[in-house]
Amino acid sequence: MRTAEELRRRKNSKQIITFNLLLLGEPGIGKNSFLENLAINNPSSSVIKIVPEDEGTNNNTLRFESSIVKIKNELTSSIILNVTSADIMNQLNSTSAPKKIREYIETQLNSFLTDEFRVLRNQEYNGHSDKRLHACIFFVNGNAKGLHTQEIDTLKEISSLINVILAIGKADRFNTNEIKNLKRRINEDIIKNDIKIFDFNDDYLDDIFEDCEHILVKEFQPFTVISGNILSKPGKELYRQNVCSKMHVDDIKISNLSYLKGIILGSHIQELQTSTNSIIYEKFRTKILLERQNEINIKNDIPESDPDKIMEEATLSPLYLTMEQSPQGLTMIPDADIMVGKELQEKNKIIEAYQRKIDALEKIIQHSNDSSPTTKVTFCELEGTI
């Protein structure tokens, strides 16, 4: 007879988690190898690459390549990874790449926002239709002894829209001391340029992986990644063959690949999804709705509100708008009931002001022995204005 733990694991194994991942970095930095390494150790897993529609049309334009990684687990939930990859320096005019990458991420967020108003907000959204990117593995070159200008520009554009995790691609190019100094310089550049990266808080390595040191996970960022190109046996060790040596890439002494895989596919997958939905998306949603409200205010000669200022004062300010779906797309209109309520509040304030004046005049009349006609006329005229 199966135990309760076995039954729970069998039930979890039937569940499927959908996770959207973005891989960014220079051409040849190891993005494709990393993608292959996510599933290569698992014989029942697979990587399906989707050929772009504009394949081969223009090598100088920024392209987003899509892949699907299906990872089947016997005792835990299976995972479907929707992976999008892009080269940040694969075009002649590379200065436009950071903005285009930001626009791509915003498009996925905006698509979810549009679909959200087609159903009740409290209903469960179809996870397979959710294209919001949950995390970005950003592969740093490292040859600049830190972050180079293109990497900084890209990270500054996207870090507020996605959970960024840094990795040093092809880390076998550097020795131990070089890796240590490179990590220090990269973290200095992150702080100097006010770039946001995913915060692992106080999560310790030994809480996630067995037989590991009691070290904070965030101290490993940027993670050193060495991807393998040789598999000893199906489901066994993965190696990288160089000219002079053969390295076991899952060896934690030379590579953080196993840590990074464990974080993305296990320990922090739920946390990354929650951060995307509850923090990143809610901030994006609030900003977009406030901007659209200001557009309506301008048309109605109402003073414009500052979205950033309002977001600082209140995370979710009351919005006097409703969403309607029209043939032209999603539109926002003033909520009639709320607008009428605001008008009544303004009129009540005027009435209260007049009432205070009336009360003051009545006190004067009561304490005055001289009931002058002037006072009575003033009182009657005031009554007539109400």
TrEMBL record:
One annotated GO molecular function: GTP binding
Coiled-coil annotated residue ranges, if any: 344-371
InterPro entries in UniProt: G_SEPTIN_dom (IPR030379), P-loop_NTPase (IPR027417)
SUPFAM superfamilies on file: P-loop containing nucleoside triphosphate hydrolases
Domain of life: Eukaryota
PROSITE patterns recorded: G_SEPTIN (PS51719)
Keywords: Coiled coil, GTP-binding, Nucleotide-binding
Positions of the Septin-type G domain: 15-291
Keyword Ribosomal protein recorded: no
Keyword field contains Nucleotide-binding: yes
Family the entry assigns: Belongs to the TRAFAC class TrmE-Era-EngA-EngB-Septin-like GTPase superfamily. Septin GTPase family.
Name of this chain's protein: Septin-type G domain-containing protein
Organism: Maudiozyma exigua
